[in-house]
Every structure is written in C-alpha cells, then in structure tokens.
Write a structure and sequence with these properties.
heterotrimer; A alpha+beta (about 160); B alpha+beta (about 750); C alpha+beta (about 325); A: about 160 residues; alpha+beta; Ubiquitin-like (UB roll); five-stranded mixed sheet; about 30% helix; B: about 750 residues; Aldehyde Oxidoreductase, domain 4; 19 helices
Chain lengths: ~160, ~750, ~325
C-alpha cells in the first residue's frame, strides 16, 4: 500500500472556516459528511453520475464525490445547509416544498443546489433549459415533473 | 361551510421542509458516539462450499473491534413464510450467489475495515452453478437447496372454470410468449444500517424499511431476543419500491457486530451493493394463451410464467402470484388457469418490484392489441370490453366493491385524443394503452391489521402514534392530514410518532399498497374515538346530543349554531378536571379471507378493495436509430378518493418514469454468468429529467365504501399501466408487436429492418 | 467509495509540474478535473503513489482565438468551450462535443485535456471487486484473457471521449511538454489503437495546449453522439464531420472522424473531394469496431456509427448552406 501522511486542510464552507487534519485521499464529500457532520450532501452512486453529492464551489455546481478536499482550499464551498436563511427557507427550497417537488428527499439537496445555480446564471430559463440543467441529477421518485414546475415557478417570479 | 379543511387538498407535506434543508436524517447520516464502521466480505463465487474461514489476521489488525462469521450467529434459517425458510444471512455451508455475505468486520474507520476484509481468508470449494431458468430446471442440474428439488422454489397454481372448453368456444385464440430480464430498484438511497445495544441488552436499529414491524419480528427470531427488546427506529427513508420489505443480511450482521463490539456499528452499502446484495426484480418468461369471442371479450386465458428468483425465496410466493392477480383484477374472464413457477438460480435474490413483472403485464395487454387488430377492434375498445366492473367477483373470488376502470379508460382516451390519433398517425408515430389493477394489501395473518393511538395535550395539541411507515411517498403527511381533519385541528397541532417498534403498535407496512387503506383507517378510527369522547363532554356542557356537534378550526361547536362553541383545548381540560384521562385508540383489520394462502389456497377475498388505472402514451420512433422520443403520457387512476391530489400526482409521475420510461426503454441488468455487469448508475439507466415527456394526470374517484374518506391506493398501478402503454405505443409506431423488454433501440431497429424485408418479399 | 492512499502534489507552475513527473514518472497520475481519474482510482483500476493536481497551473486554461490558429489551454473547462460564442461560430463541432459530454455539472469540472486523455472503457473492465473478484485478469488489467470476447488475444476496450473526434476533424494538434523539451503532435497521433495502453505519451510528459488551425474558405462542422439517455452517458457511437467548400461551391476538404468505434477515434476520409455521403457511411461502418462490451450490442453500435457519420456530414453541409 502506498504511504500517505495526514495534512492540515482549511476549508471555507457556508461562510465558515474549518481547520481539519486529514489524509489527502479524502474526498470533499467524505470530509463534509464525516468530519464536518454536514450530512445534507449525499452519496448515491460514488461515481459522479447521480448528482446527490452536488455542492457549489465558488457558485458552480460540482461533484463532491469526485473532488479532493485538499484541492479546494481557498475556494468558497456551499452545501445545502448554507442555503437556508436562518429559520426561513431559501426561495428555491420553499418552491420545492410548495410544489411537491420532494418525495423521499434523497436527491433533493443536490437537485436544489443545481436549480439554485441555474437560476443564478439564467434567471428565466425555459422548460428545456431547466430539464437540461438538472439532467445530471437522478430522482427515482418524482418523475421530475414537479421539480420542473418548482423551478419554473421561480423563473416566472423572477426570483 | 366547506366540507373538508385539509382532506382532498393539495397542501404541502409536513415532512419535506427538513428534506429541503438537508436536515432530515437517513440511516447513513447517523453518527452515534464511538460508532464503528462495518463492512461485509462477499462471495466471489456463484456457488461454492465454504470449507474454512480464517479471521485470525483480521482480528489482530489494530482498530478492528469485531469480526463476524456464521459461527457467531445462531445459524437458523429464516424465511418470510414457514415453508420458505432457507436463508441464514451468514451461511454456514455454502454460498449461492456472487456477492453473498460471508463475513463482516467492525473497525474504527473505513480504511481499517476494508483492510481487515482483505485479511480474512476464505477457502471455497467451487461448485457448478446455474444461471438460467432452463439450466436450473434441467435434470441433473446443480441443486441450490436440498428442500427445493430441481430448483423449483414456488409453484402457484390457479384454475378457475374450464379453460380448454373456453378455448374451443372461442372465436379466436392466440398464444404468445413475452420475456424481460431483471429490473432493479435503484432507490435514491443506497442501503445502510446502524445498530447499537444499550446496557440492558436492548437493540436499537435504523435502516430503510417498508415496515419496521416486519423487520423487528425476524430480528427478534434471528437474534433470539424478545420483541420488546428489538427497537426498529424511525428514520427518513430514501425510497423502497418493494425492495426493502423483509429483513436483510445487513440488518442481522450489523446487530451482531454491535453486540460483539459493544459499540454502535453502521454499515453503508455502495451503489453496487445496493443493486447486487439487497433485492432485484425477477426476470420473467410469460407464455399467455387467450381466447376471445367475436367482440373481443376474453373467454379463456391460460398463463404459464417462469420467473428467476435468484438464490433464496425471499417473498417468493407473493412475487409469483401478484403479476397474475393484478391482471385477473383488471380484466374480466370466466375461465383462467395460471401456473407460476419461481425457479432458483445462482444469482442475487429477487423480490417484489413496483411494476411486478413487465413481461407479464405488457404481455397481457399487448396481446389484447394483437387480438383486436385481427378482429378489427381498436386497443381502447378492447380494454372497455374486458374491463373489470363494480360488483364483480374476480376469478379467485375477490369481490370488487368499487371500480372506476371504465372511467379511467374513457377519460384518458378523451384527454389523449385517442380516437383522432389511433390508426391515423404518420409512420413511426404511435399511441398505446395499458390497464391494470392493484390490491390494497393481502391476508397477512396476525400482522394484517393496523392500530393507532392518539395522545392529547392539555393545550389541545395531539400526538398520533402509529406503525405506518413513510418511504418517501407521503405517508407521514397522510397520517397528520387525516388526524387533523377528523379532530378539527390544524396540521401544526398534530405531532407524529410512527414507525418505531418500541412505541408504535403493529402495522402491515407500506407495500402491496395498504398503508392508506389499512393504516389510514386505523388513524381515522383513533381520531373518531377521541372525537367521540370530547363530544360527549361538550354535549354535556351545552345540553345537546353529540350528533349535533362538529369540530373544525380547533373548536367544537353546534353544527347548526356555530356561536355555541368551545375550544378543543378547553374540552380537553374539562375532561381532565373531571378526572377523565382522554386518549384515542383505533384499529383496522381488513375484511379479507384469512384462509387465503398464496400456494395452498389461492382463493378468497384478497383485499377489501382494489384500485384501477389506465395509461395512454404517445411516441415517435427514429427509424434510422431505433431511438424513441416519448411525446406525451396521460395517466389516470381510480384512487377511491384523493386525500392529497398533489401527492397522488407525484405517484403517477414517478410511476410513469419507473414503469414506462425506464422499464420499457432503458432499464435492464446485464450479466456475465452470475455477475451483475451493470450495478452502477452508468450501467443501469434510470430516467433523467431531459427525457421525460409531458405527463397529464387524471384522478378518478369512486369513493370506496371502506377506504378512509373513500381512499384506496395510488402508488403502484400507474407504473404497470405505463409499461403497458409504452409497449403498445412503440409497437403501434413501428407496426411490430414487441415481445421482449425493455424495447431498446437495437430491438426496434431490428424489427424495422425485418419488417422492411417482409414487405419487400410480399 | 474510498480512494486508495496516495501522496498529493500541487505544483503552481508548469516547470514545477514537469519536474515532478520527470522524477516520479509512472508512479504519478495527473488530475485535471478529476472526473475520469477519481473513478478509476475508486475502482482500484489504478493505485498511483502520487496524484498531481494540475488545476492550479497558471496559463493552462483559456481560449485564445487567433487569426491562423486557436490555442485552448489543456485545463480549460468543457463548459467554457461549450458556451464560447466564437468556438460555436468557428469550431461548431468542438463546441457541440463539449456541450454533450456527460452532464452539465460534469462539464463544470472536466477539462479538454482530461477529456482527450480519458482512458478506454469496457463493461468488463470498469468494475469494482464485487463484479470482478474471482475472475481472471483481462488484458487491460495486466492479464492474459479478454472477458468481453472469449479467446481474444487483444483488448477490445473502447475510446469514448467526445472531444477527440471533433478536434481531429479540425486537424487539431497538441503540445506535449516535458522537462527540457517540447513537442507538438496531431491529436490523432496521440492514440495507439491499443486498448491496453491507449496513448503514445511518456509518463514524464504533460499535455498543455490544444492547437486548432483556422480552416480556409467556407466551412462548417458537426458532432453527433448516440446514447440511450439525453445526458450523463458516454457515447455508444459518435461522429464528427468537417466540410469546407471552395468559392465554386465544390467540396475542398472533407473529414469524418468516428468515435466509440474502437480503441481510438478513426479518420474515415481525409482527402475526398466528393461529398459521397452514402460511401462515407459505408466506410464508417467498415472501419468501426463493435463487440458486446458496452451498453448496446456491438453490431448495433457499428450501424449507428455509420448513421451518425451520415448525419454529421449532413449537418455540416446544412451549416455551410446557412452561411456559416
């Protein structure tokens, strides 16, 4: 087995600074869930396909299961926990709840962050653009119909 | 005054805000103090005798706190039924599929656990294996279990009327064979279990499940502990779809590891383990022979179905029966014979899957299309002529109390403009229809009923205590919605304790569609019990009779004179000042024939009521690539009554995706002998947002006489009908009837090419 | 899924990077976007002693559209290439290919260099222990059998990268640097057509730039990809076409490159003067390799390569008509 030493990593997550000591082969997903106990980000496939591990890095959605924690120092990481505004839901979260876009909830954090990033880049997406933007987020429960409705409702409101 | 405050409204669910924020905890999210990481060592062979297991090196590895093999368990064989007890969870003699559990470790971190697994030495004597139904049944085939000669696990035989006579009197008889390989559940959440024992030897265990009480009993049997010491806890569950119903080796292994290590242990499955080592759906070959009269009405039907069950029984008798039962519920037929064979092979274990056998469901329906074509009758009319009706009795003697199948056929036909389109679409453009029916539970002996309690607080709030479990479909919300409505409270006033076997009373679980009907009825009865007690107090106080009272908006009032009101909080306190403790209890046992048994006696009332549905699908096919573009799907179902229309639409839409889009276009497992080659999200293709069509939802309500507020079920039927409708639409588009599923582009292209060849010849 | 142990290297400039791979050679694996490397490591297909993150290297990303040549840094994210207006205008097939890689989130991370250098794939190779334990090692894993094609003496793994066919259609080249020297080769020359070792690149070399010559005259291009779903999946067949016409509207250059049809992208015809679409389609079929080691049967995939070649050419010719 190859040798490996733990290294000090400083991560900025949801506007908070975390200093941890970890092996370099820890993914960002593992560090978020196991070291920082931010379990909102999920693992559903481990290979960057399903989107459940999606987090934002400097506002861009990425696969945290394919990202090394040590490689994202100095970047601003946003997880689902960073989206809600204190006790209030973020408008994207609220839309998902109101439009029944959540059933079992396992894909929801990744789906919500991806939708949030889409609207940040394109405040008025068409249905086609919405479906493409979330095409890398697998949902087994909803058939996506109400997820698309939820995002559409935000587009119309210009939120 | 509006009839209902919450029932029938598409109000938002009570449980989704915490899922939106990521706060909701799934089993893999749990972190208990001093928790260890559990990992399972799995068989690399499809069939092999376990000669020896040497764990010495693993045990010595620093950081390893427990190593488990069969000798640490009691070695008893377990089964869902008394006559299917064949699984040990950690086998003592031999392994029967690639991926089967052989040993396990609990260590301080994942890397140590993985290293420990690599240090366990297992000596196998490889045995010949069988991978197909044909090979498994062949004389002289290697036997998986001594108790199932010729690897025949289950044989369901149903024979009603006189099928042969029926055929001789038929105007037209067709026989076709349909087949499909395994589908796979691919729940969003990969399986995970966490377990810990306390100082008094009580077990607390969390895992995704479709019925905590159905997990607790087997655990109590296998661990040899009384039920009251086995606490299956409530946890957020990421989907089940039929694949998390019975106890899993991971549950048993985790519990034993926690016991041995005297520390909490968590096992988290990878996506591959979830695909290979929990459950898969059965692959099936269905031979269907149907005779009809001149009008296309089915006179006789003879079905032989072989299903590949994998290495153990699991819910075998149920899985072997349900495909047939759904069909006999949906369509009228006097004479029917069914031979269902569940065969064992050296492959992972198969269970019940939402679509319950696409080969079977699609086969029955597409054959109706074929027969219709020969008679000059269109597919929709064929369905109307054969549809189940209210007041019928099915061949296996279930009385149908409410049936809106015809209404669903007519409404989907109208919405999809079937009459304008069928037979009139341009080439490679097609439309298809499918119908099915689903039961609301089945006889489950002592576990077939549900009970609920309601506790009242002095400020008028309540806590509902029920065994109902939510797999993501919205059952938690259903409980609160029913209780709030019946009690005259708001949903915020209703707290919920459910799916926790330490506290909650028994409930059959959320599959074969009984949570709303059975569980919901129990909650309703418990709420009515509370209401009766409170009304007595208020009636006394106002000098009226209880019948003259209503409850709404946290108040109890005289219906015809609402100014005479009392807050529910006050009524509760009034009871308490009278030294009367107030609480509610309700239990519901469906009026089914408890003597009915899958194999020994497949006759009698199966469930109290049935849901019925129709799906119509329109597609376009690219004749050069064989690829299918799904344009529009219309799904309709007689759900009895929609307790929450938005929740029900969610089930329709999810069903279209799973049964139709995935089940008919892309989902199938590929094999290399007994090895799953497609265990990941890149190998097994579930539908994505970009490919889904427009879905129209039509809820039909027949107000079932027994269902809570008239509700029946809504979670399963659309998946089956969607599969049938997609099959019909693609067949219509190409002009060839497809018998093998899923209908992937290579099959479509081949069919198009062969059709062209035939046309050139003729 | 756990990654195997490794030491992490993070050079900040190209010289440092070249020095590191010069010293450590085969024991280093280069991480750009990580979307290919991380998966291969999780499956334990490779367990390098060192992982070198080139994501922080300066001057290795960016699209510099020049008059005669366009330079794209190897670290440029596929998303940036997909949306760049001038890439869409001048090198449409390359933008289309970038847009169709995997899914929108993956192209936020994946780089053009990484996509070109992705390893070949096969259903019998890209698996973890739960599938492969107990089986003989195949050629690509250093063994002596092929699990996909019984008895085969060679590897049938498939190159499924989307960018390379489109780049080759434009006759693109790349810059490979190592300590002390630099060389430029055509993208097509990067490939060995050997599934076991698909690339002719030294362990001490780093791909730093993609160079795309500006075609002359009026031209257009297209990239077509076949997969069962509209996103996420690797191509089961692909084709890139480049067509240019002279002032007299006669075809002056014509290049079709097929992908997911063997261990390397294949140029079907580089010199034809006539737009013989059917002939090209037949040739594409003849040159395509397809065995049953991906999601769809090999015979079907070969046919699809042919169909896509036709469609890509047609789209390119339509593009010329539209005045692109």
């Amino acid at each position: 087995m190859n040798e490996m030493k733990k290294t000090a990593i400083t991560l900025s997550v949801n506007n908070e600074t975390y200093d941890i000591v970890a092996f370099p082969n820890r993914t960002l997903l593992e560090v978020l869930r196991d070291d920082l106990h931010l379990t909102g980000t999920k693992e559903s496939c481990g290979e960057g396909v399903c989107g459940s591990c999606t987090v934002l890095i400097d506002g861009t959605p990425v696969r945290s299961c394919l990202t090394l924690a040590v490689a994202v120092q100095g970047k601003e990481i946003t997880t689902i926990e960073g989206l809600s505004m204190g006790e209030k839901l973020h408008p994207v979260q609220e839309a998902f709840v109101n439009h029944h876009a959540i059933q079992c909830g396992f894909c929801s954090p990744g789906m919500i962050l991806t939708s949030y990033a889409l609207l940040a880049e394109n405040p008025n997406p068409t249905e086609k653009e919405i479906r493409r933007a979330i095409s890398g987020n697998v949902c087994r429960c909803t058939g996506y119909a109400k997820i698309v409705e939820a995002v559409k409702s935000l587009a119309e409101e210009g939120k | 005054m509006e009839k209902f405050s919450y029932i029938g409204k598409g109000m938002k669910r009570i449980d989704t805000a915490c899922k939106a924020t990521g706060e909701a905890l799934f089993a893999a999210d749990l972190a208990l103090p001093r928790m260890l990481v559990g990992k399972v060592l799995r068989s690399p062979h499809a069939h092999a005798r376990i000669v020896a297991i040497d764990t010495a090196k693993a045990e010595k590895l620093p950081g390893v706190k427990a190593v488990l093999t069969a000798k640490d368990t009691f070695g008893d064989k377990w089964g869902v039924f008394k006559y299917t007890q064949d699984q040990q969870f950690l086998p003592t003699e031999k392994v029967r599929y690639v991926g089967e559990e052989v040993a396990a470790v609990a260590a301080v971190d994942e890397d140590t656990a993985l290293e420990a697994l690599s240090l366990i030495d297992v000596t196998y004597e490889v045995l010949p294996a069988v991978y197909t139904i044909e090979d498994a049944l062949a004389p002289g085939a290697p036997q998986l279990h001594d108790v199932y000669p010729n690897n025949l696990n289950i044989h369901v035989f149903i024979n009603v009327g006189d099928v042969e006579k029926g055929f001789t009197h038929s105007h037209l008889v067709r026989e076709d064979t349909f087949s499909a390989p395994e589908d796979s559940y691919f729940q969003g959440e990969p399986y995970a279990v966490a377990a810990q024992f306390d100082h008094a030897g009580n077990l607390e265990i969390w895992m995704p499940n479709a019925g905590p009480h159905l997990k607790a009993k087997p655990l109590s049997n296998v661990l040899k502990m009384p039920l009251n010491k086995v606490r299956v806890r409530k946890i957020t569950i990421g989907g089940a779809f039929g694949g998390r119903s019975e106890i899993s080796p991971a549950d048993v292994i985790c519990a034993f590891l926690a016991k041995k290590a005297q520390r909490p242990v968590k096992i988290v499955y990878s996506r591959e383990e979830n695909t290979v080592c929990t459950r898969q759906a059965h692959s099936m070959i269905a031979k269907i022979k149907t005779g009809v009269d001149k009008e296309g009405r089915v006179v006789a039907r003879d079905i032989t179905c072989h299903m590949d069950g994998g290495a153990y029984s699991s819910t075998g008798p149920i899985a072997t029966s349900v495909p047939f039962l759904c069909m006999e519920q949906a369509y009228r037929m006097e004479n029917v014979r069914y031979n269902g064979y569940r065969v064992l092979t050296n492959k992972p274990i198969r269970g019940m899957f939402r679509t319950h056998g696409r080969a079977f469901a699609c086969g029955v329906d597409i054959q109706l299309d074929m027969i219709g074509e020969a008679l000059g009758i269109d597919p929709l009319t064929m369905r109307l002529r054969n549809a189940r009706q209210t007041g019928d009795t099915t061949p296996t003697k279930s009385y149908v109390a409410s049936c809106g199948l015809t209404e669903t056929i007519e409404k989907t036909g109208k919405k999809s403009r079937w009459a304008e389109k069928f037979g009139r679409l341009p080439p490679y453009h097609g439309i298809g229809i499918g119908c099915n029916s689903v039961q609301t539970g089945f006889p489950m002996g002592i576990r077939g009923g549900s009970q609920a309690f309601i506790k009242l607080n002095e400020d008028g709030g309540v806590t509902v205590i029920t065994g109902i479990v939510d797999n993501g479909q919205g059952n938690d919300h259903m409980i609160v919605q029913i209780a709030a409505e019946e009690l005259g409270l708001t949903p915020d006033d209703v707290q919920l304790i459910n799916a926790d076997t330490e506290v909650t009373p028994s409930d059959p679980g959320s599959y074969s569609m009984c949570e709303t009907f059975i569980g919901g009825n129990a909650v309703l009865l418990a709420a009515q019990d509370v209401k009766k007690k409170l009304f007595r107090i208020v009636a006394d106080e106002f000098g009226v009779s209880a019948e003259q009272l209503s409850a709404k908006n946290r108040k109890i009032f005289v219906t015809k004179d609402p100014q005479q009101e009392m807050s529910i909080a006050k009524a509760v306190r009034m009871a308490l000042t009278r030294n009367e403790s107030i609480s509610g209890e309700g239990s519901y046992w469906p009026k089914v024939d408890w003597r009915r048994e899958w194999v020994k006696n497949p006759s009698g009332q199966l469930s109290e009521t049935f849901s019925f549905g129709t799906v119509i699908c329109e597609v376009k096919v690219d004749p050069e690539t064989g690829q299918v573009e799904v344009l529009e799907v219309t799904a309709s179902q007689d759900v009895g009554y929609a307790l929450n229309p938005k929740v029900i639409e969610g089930q329709f839409e999810g069903g279209v995706a799973m049964g139709g889009q995935g089940g008919m276009l892309t989902e199938y497992l590929q094999w290399y002998e007994g090895r799953v080659l497609t265990p990941t999200q890149l190998g097994y293709l579930v539908p994505l947002a970009i490919d889904m069509p427009t879905i129209n939802n039509i809820i039909v309500e027949t107000i079932d006489p027994k269902g809570p507020y008239g509700a029946k079920e809504a979670g399963m039927s659309v998946a089956m009908s969607a599969a049938q409708a997609y099959c019909g639409a693609i067949s219509n588009a190409v002009g060839v009837y497809f018998h093998e599923y899923p209908i992937t582009p290579d099959k479509i292209l081949k069919a198009i090419e062969e059709k062209k060849k035939q046309e050139r010849k003729g | 899924m756990r990654l195997p142990p490794f030491q992490y290297l993070e050079p900040t400039n190209v010289e440092e990077a070249l020095s590191m791979i010069g010293i450590h050679k085969e024991t280093v694996k280069i991480m750009a976007g990580g979307t290919d490397l991380m998966n291969r490591m999780k499956l334990r297909l490779i367990e390098p002693a060192f992982v070198m993150n080139i994501g922080k290297l300066r001057n290795m990303d960016g699209i510099d559209i020049g008059d005669t040549e366009t330079v794209i840094g190897a670290n440029t994210r596929l998303k940036d290439i997909a949306v760049a207006p001038l890439v869409n205008k001048r090198f449409r097939a390359i933008a289309e290919a970038a847009f169709q890689v995997a899914s929108p989130t993956i192209i936020n991370m994946a780089t053009i260099g990484g996509n070109v250098l992705q390893n070949t794939r096969c259903m019998y190779y890209d698996q973890s222990g739960i599938v492969l334990n107990g089986l003989e090692r195949c050629h690509k894993r250093g063994g002596t059998v092929c699990l996909a094609v019984k008895g085969s003496k060679r590897c049938f793994s498939v190159y499924q990268g989307d960018m390379a066919p489109a780049l080759i259609a434009f006759d693109a080249r790349c810059v490979l640097e190592k300590k002390g020297s630099i060389r430029t080769v055509s993208i097509a020359e990067l490939f060995t057509s050997n599934g076991v070792a698909p690339f002719a690149i030294g362990a001490d070399e780093l791909l730093t730039k993609i160079l795309i010559p500006r075609p002359e005259g009026i031209y257009s291009s297209a990239y077509r990809k076949l997969r069962l779903r509209g996103s996420v999946d690797y191509p089961l067949a692909s084709a890139a076409a480049f067509v240019s016409v002279a002032n007299n509207r006669k075809v002056s250059a014509f290049r079709v490159v097929i992908g997911a049809a063997g261990a390397a992208p294949k140029v079907i015809d580089g010199t034809s003067r006539e737009a013989d679409v059917e002939g090209i389609a037949r040739k594409a079929y003849d040159h395509a390799e397809g065995v049953d080691n991906l999601k769809m049967p090999g015979a079907y995939r070969r046919k699809m390569v042919s169909v896509l070649a036709k469609r890509a050419i047609q789209a390119a010719m339509d593009g010329i008509k539209e005045g692109m």
